[in-house]
Each structure stands twice: as structure tokens, then as C-alpha cells.
Design a protein that fits this description.
With about 475 residues, this protein is α/β, with parallel strands linked by helices. The chain has 14 helices and 21 strands. The protein is globular and about 65 Å long.
Length: about 475
Amino acid sequence: MAQAEYDLIVIGAGAVGENVAERAVAGGMSTVIIESELVGGDCSYWACMPSKALLRSAAAVRAAQNLDGAKQAVTGDLDVAGVLRRRNWITSDWHDDGQVRWLEDAGIELARGHGALVGAKRVAVTGQDGAVTELTARHAVAICTGSAAMLPDIPGLREIDPWTSRDATSARVVPRSLAIIGGGVVACEMATAYAGFGTKVTMAVHSRLLGHNEPFAGDAVRESLEGMGVTVRTGVGVIRAHRTDRNAVLTLSDGGRIVAEQVLVATGRVPRTGDIGLEHVGLTPADWLSVDDTMLVAGSDWLYAVGDVNHRALLTHQGKYQARAAGDVIAARAAGNAVADGPWGRHVATADHGYVPQVTFTDPEVASVGVTEAEARAAGRRIRVLDYDLAWVAGASAHSDRYRGQARAIVDEDRRVLIGATFVGPDVGEMLQSATIAIVGEVPIDRLWHAVPAYPTVSEVWLRWLEAYGRDSA
């Protein structure tokens, strides 16, 4: 058996693992990263990037159709083949040569194969040819293996060979009809994308759409989806599935049925930790890994878990944020340097706790950061809720002839700072960073008065929020 030793071993070469490795190398550590699939991981090939490519073209057409002078130029149907070509280009047609070159340029070694712990600081890498190499870490091992789609235990579901998010974002052929089980981000984004392609989409949703967002966000997305021809059935579960010669059939809890050519399951995520040897270091296989704010696994002084596997915030940007902190702290501890692990220190992921931004790329987009009204009230916080119709700001009329949107700010009355914000409307994802800075920076309301929004932009909603807060406080 071949053997090698490094300062740091990273299992998983997705965006998170790449960032851990890059920061550790910058800190002077010899680092190897292990990958059994494509370097770049889900975000590059099966999630963030391809899904947004599938969504963008139809969104651009709809935006043009809502603007006089532009709508007259839209004379044909969406070129679905062109959308898929663009998606293939964005994913480099599922080749990772460019990402591998980036690793080489960054001084990170790559081990192709499946990595699994075989003991403390020891990882066995099994290559495609079956050859095994045992790697030893002088200082740390970082698990960055991500998460996978969860398939609920529904009789017959596995037998109909349903799609997961990976299949939906990498499809080469668009189905004529699609049933989607779930109502979260993946479900809503893929319903938007496939409806734009002309697919007949039906959603089976246990509660409501985008249940972790403010209720008005899910309501707006539902209205939009239904306007695109999507059938949204809420308050139902799927109790059984089977396939006929041509279609899949879902039996619902209310006695109804959905018949579709293909089924997409979008009901949550599970950690990719079932086959990475956790049992050899006293941990439970197939479980989420509990960590502290430096991403160090509970009870360990050498094992780190970064990104989806720690279940703190299942978002690429948040995982990369964790990775920057983890890579830096691993290097600092290895060198015996001081560790800045207090709140907002460079070696911790403080923003995982109540400051997480997210954009759902439906039409309208939903952009949120911080807490919702319900979460704030459940925590017993004394708050004021500021709601504003985005169609009333001057920038909305400049943006679209039929602009529809809403914005909500949550103010902590005891500290007079924002603790939550939600925007719903066209392209509102680009407005989110300003709210994130205000919330993370705990910018006082009185100081926000001096952050003047440019006119005419949709960002003028910030002034309207402040005016409403001032009136209500008088």
C-alpha cells in the first residue's frame, strides 16, 4: 500500500473543500484534497451554477415582455436547446480540467478516489482501479463531503426512478410533464425553470411554498407559478408511487393523483457521511457532524467538518465562509499562533447564527437575511415590522411596466438595529448585500438615515422603511 504524509487532508473537492485547502496552503501547510467525482463539486456541476443557467433565459424573456418597446422585439418562443447549450457551457460540459488547473496553481495536491477515515488523522484513498493509498495528516483532516438529496420513505418511490436535483439540473431532454414533490427552494426554482420550458408542472407540497421565508414570499411565488401554468397542490403528501408504461403516478393523501412523465423529489438533504469511515474515529456514520464555531468536530482536536456536513447553513456561500475561517484556524493552530475565536474573529463563523443571506431565484426572486417576524417573536424579541410595497418606489416604474414586489424589515426595538430583511421582486437578489451589511454590522437606525439611496432605484425602499419607522416612533 502506497503511503504519504501531509499537514492537512481535505476530503471533498467542492467549493468548500477548495476554500479550506487554499487558506491552509496560504498559511504554509502542505495540503492534499481528495475527490471521487468532479473537482468543483455540486455547486459547479449540479446545483448553483447549472440551475441558475436554466432559469435565466426565460426570466430575461419575461422581463422584456413586461417592458413596452422591448416586448415588441420578443417575436419567438424560448429556444430550450439554446438554454441547455448555455447550461452545458457554464458547467464546462461536466469536465473539471479548469478546476484541476486551479488546484495546481494554488499548490494543492489532488488525490483522485474515495476517501475514508481509517483512524485518527489517517485516510485511505481508493482509486478507480482499486488501488489504495493511505494518507496521514500531521495536523488535521477536514471533511467537506457536502449533502445529497433525501428520498422520503414513500412506497414505490424508488422503483419509479425519480429525479433528484442533480438530474433536474443536468437533464439533456426536457420532459413534457413533471411532478415535483416538495415546496422549498429547489422545488420552486425547478418549477420555475421547467414551466419556462413549456413543461406541464404539478407540485405536491406538504404545507406551503418556501415555508422558511416570510409568508408573503411564498404567496408571491405561488401566484407567479400559477400564472405560468403550474398547478400547486398544498396541504397534501404523497403516499404511494408507481409507473405505467409512459408515466409515473403519485397517489396523494387527499385521494387525488398526479400523473407525469417524470417526478422530481425535492424534500430535503442528508449528509454525505455514510461511507467515509466515521465509525473508525468514534462517530456515527451517515450523521450530521456537530462542530464549534471554528468548525472543529465536537470531542476532537484534529477533525474538522465544513459546509453542509455540519448542518449549520446548507448554502454554498455560507460553506465557503466557514471554509475561510476553518482553513485559517487550522494553519494558526498548526503554527502555534493565536486563535481569534471570539465573536466576529477571523477564525470563527459567527454569521451562521442569525445572519445568513439567501436568494431563491424564482420569478419574482426572494432575497432574505437574518430572522423572520415569526422567528423574532418566537425568540421573545421586542420588534417592529416595517412593510413596503416595492411597486411604490420610483425605481420600480423605471425597471418594469408591471413591477410587483414587497419588502419587510424587522427592527430590534431594544437596540434600534435591523435583525431581518426580506425582499420579493424582480432582481432583488442584487439588493441583499446592503441589508446583510446593515444587519451584520448592527448599523444603528439613526446612522442608516445618512446612507442615502440613489434615485431612481428600487433601493429607495430603505428610505421608505426609515420614514415609516420615524412616523411610527413619533
